[in-house]
């Protein structure tokens, strides 16, 4: 028993580092991707906008489509194999982006990047299956801080690397970082994987029929999509909103960067504690708290007149993210048969990618219709609707203080 505990804790430590580097590597190229597109041709403003949008969107689209297929393969062949596939593939593809000289080659590589995605959900699935159930919430909460903190540092590091060296060299450096993730995963991650008999899957029928509560699974997946949609609807307009609040005076880009980073900082601080509370007090309670707190924090962001107030409210949003994302993953883990864990976590990634796409699109549309503050109100209303759906289709959520799920 003691050896088993050492095993899952070692996996958690290694995969925390792996997801940290992966999150940093994925995010450090994002701030200047549009600038890189502009270097690949002589485009009009409209063409640059179109090509930049396509370059961003193609990866999320492919992830949404192929994640369930990779998840099914993970359940047949093991999650560690998927970690190796993703980290090595991403290392090669992102590194190759530093050598392209036309926009269509970059878009093609972004397409391949979507095919190679899956490191973080498979790390979550491996931790969920290798960790004792009574500690799974804590473990997933800790793992969440890995890629959240990587995503926080990535844009800053990427900006510095691009400034000191070049955008092209930054892609190559990112590829090297992801190659390190591959080596760590290959040598230090251990999985006690036993493939399920093929007959078991065949006899079980459709995917949803193999769950005790398919409605709960669908509701949780849709919740992942809406929560991510809310987060991404803010991303395209946050710097413009900061500019408006500062009356176009002062270090706008610096302040916008800080405001954008605040939710990640509070998620980093809150996710492990909230995961532990979920294990000891009940995951239902944490999920209800996360929804209510997010709704209360999003609404006033549309009415603020001070950059300090916006910063405080954005910091609080990270607390709700620290409750919502890990808790949804924990509930998926606790309500999924072991032989389908990889499948369901990949479906979760697919819905998260759909949320990213919808958020970026709807954020732009809503801001054009109702100005920037309308985006925050739209997000709050979306989460309120999501919370109502959760209460309707997951009965235990109606009485969270009577349950310990």
From TrEMBL:
Protein's UniProt keywords contain Transmembrane: yes
The transmembrane residues are 12-36, 48-70, 82-101, 140-165, 171-190, 249-271, 283-300, 312-332, 376-394
Give the Major facilitator superfamily (MFS) profile domain ranges. 11-398
Q: Where is coiled-coil annotated?
A: none
Q: Chief localization class? A: membrane
What the entry lists under Pfam families is as follows: MFS_1, Sugar_tr
Keywords, in A-Z order: Cell membrane, Membrane, Transmembrane, Transmembrane helix, Transport
- The domain of life is Bacteria
Spell out the subcellular localization from the entry.
Cell membrane
What topology does the record note for this protein and the membrane?
Multi-pass membrane protein
Q: Which InterPro entries match?
A: MFS, MFS_dom, MFS_sugar_transport-like, MFS_trans_sf, Tet-R_TetA/multi-R_MdtG-like
Q: What is this protein called?
A: MFS transporter
């Amino acid at each position: 028993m003691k050896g088993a505990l050492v095993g899952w804790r070692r996996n958690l430590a290694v995969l925390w580092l792996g997801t940290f580097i992966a999150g940093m590597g994925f995010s450090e190229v994002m701030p200047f991707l549009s600038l890189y597109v502009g270097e690949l041709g002589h485009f009009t403003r409209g063409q640059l906008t179109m090509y930049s949008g396509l370059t961003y969107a193609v990866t999320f689209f492919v992830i949404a489509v192929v994640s369930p297929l990779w998840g099914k393969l993970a359940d047949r062949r093991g999650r560690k194999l998927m970690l190796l596939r993703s980290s090595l593939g991403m290392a090669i593809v992102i590194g190759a982006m530093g050598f392209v000289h036309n926009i269509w080659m970059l878009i093609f590589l972004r397409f391949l990047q979507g095919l190679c995605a899956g490191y973080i959900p498979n790390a979550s699935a491996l931790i969920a299956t290798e960790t004792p159930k009574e500690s799974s919430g804590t473990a997933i909460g800790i793992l969440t801080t890995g890629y959240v903190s990587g995503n926080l540092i990535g844009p800053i590091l990427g900006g510095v690397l691009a400034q000191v060296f070049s955008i092209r060299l930054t892609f190559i450096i990112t590829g090297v970082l992801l190659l390190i993730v591959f080596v760590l995963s290959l040598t230090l991650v251990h999985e006690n994987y036993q493939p399920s008999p093929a007959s078991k899957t065949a006899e079980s029928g459709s995917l949803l029929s193999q769950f005790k509560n398919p409605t709960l699974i669908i509701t949780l997946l849709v919740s992942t999509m809406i929560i991510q949609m809310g987060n991404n609807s803010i991303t395209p307009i946050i710097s413009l909103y900061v500019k408006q609040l500062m009356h176009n005076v002062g270090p706008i880009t610096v302040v916008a960067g800080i405001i954008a980073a605040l939710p990640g900082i509070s998620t980093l601080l809150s996710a492990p504690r909230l995961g532990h509370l979920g294990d000891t007090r009940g995951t239902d309670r944490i999920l209800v708290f996360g929804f209510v707190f997010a709704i209360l924090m999003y609404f006033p962001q549309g009415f603020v007149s001070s950059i300090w107030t916006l910063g405080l409210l954005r910091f609080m949003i990270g607390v709700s993210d620290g409750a919502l994302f890990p808790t949804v993953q924990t509930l998926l883990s606790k309500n999924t048969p072991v032989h389908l864990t990889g499948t369901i976590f990949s479906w979760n990634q697919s819905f998260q990618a759909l949320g990213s796409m919808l958020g970026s699109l709807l954020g732009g549309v809503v801001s054009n219709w109702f100005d920037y503050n309308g985006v925050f109100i739209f997000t709050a209303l979306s989460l309120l609707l999501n919370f109502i759906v959760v209460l309707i289709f997951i009965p235990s959520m109606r009485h969270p203080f009577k349950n310990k799920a």
